[in-house]
Amino acid sequence: MKNLILLLFTVLLVVSCSNKNNTATNSNKNISKENSVSFTQLENYFPKNTLNVTALTGYLITNQERLNELFGIGKTMTNVIVSPDFSKEVVLAVIAPVTNQSTKLSVSSISLDNNVLNVSLDAKIGEKLSYSLTPSTIVTIPMIDEVKSIQIKSSLGNYSINL
User: Which residues in the chain come in under a pLDDT of 50?
Assistant: First the structure.
């Protein structure tokens, strides 16, 4: 009987301790998620040739007119163009200088820290091309009123947007 009570007590103790550890882990996950900002990649947009970009440049676009001023749409018969809903979200665009190397830009993460939106940008540079291109990436993010500046960091350089 004593062994059974001791065994039951030990099992309860182990279960109780493991629940406390899970709770701490879950709360840490929630803290990191609170700083993370969701974003959606927009496809089939390209920077217009009228832009003269000489260094990594970021744009925060808040209306359709500005988006149309900076970007064209690459519409084909089979692709679907997603237009941002500017009543709920804004567009963050990053454009690199013209290059003749295959270059793919993509946003890997966005986080909010003390009114600063931190954007991590991946840049994959490939082989030399027989033509030139203007690398860019464009994402939508929710409207966040408390953002005072945006910091874009990548291997191609860093860029700041003060709002």
Answer: 1-16, 18-33
Distance (Å, rounded) from C-alpha 37 to C-alpha 92? 12
Whether 125 contacts 132, CB under 8 Å: no
Spatial CA neighbour of 54 closest among 101, 105, 97, 100: 97
Instruction: Please give the sequence-ordered ranges of beta strands (E in DSSP) within the chain, or none if there are none.
Output: 40-41, 45-47, 57-61, 71-73, 89-95, 99-113, 116-133, 136-142, 149-154, 157-162
How many Cβ atoms sit within 10 Å of the Cβ of residue 151? Answer: 15
**Token code pair at residue 158:** 């860093």
Closest CA to 35 of 146, 154, 160: 146
Predicted structure pTM score:
0.74
Q: How far apart are CA 110 and CA 141, in angstroms?
A: 9
Q: What does pLDDT average to over the chain? A: 83
Q: Using an 8 Å Cβ cutoff, are 78 and 43 in contact?
A: no
Give exposure, 120-136, as e/b (b: 16+ Cβ within 10 Å): ebebeeeeeeeeeebbb
DSSP secondary-structure letter at 36? B
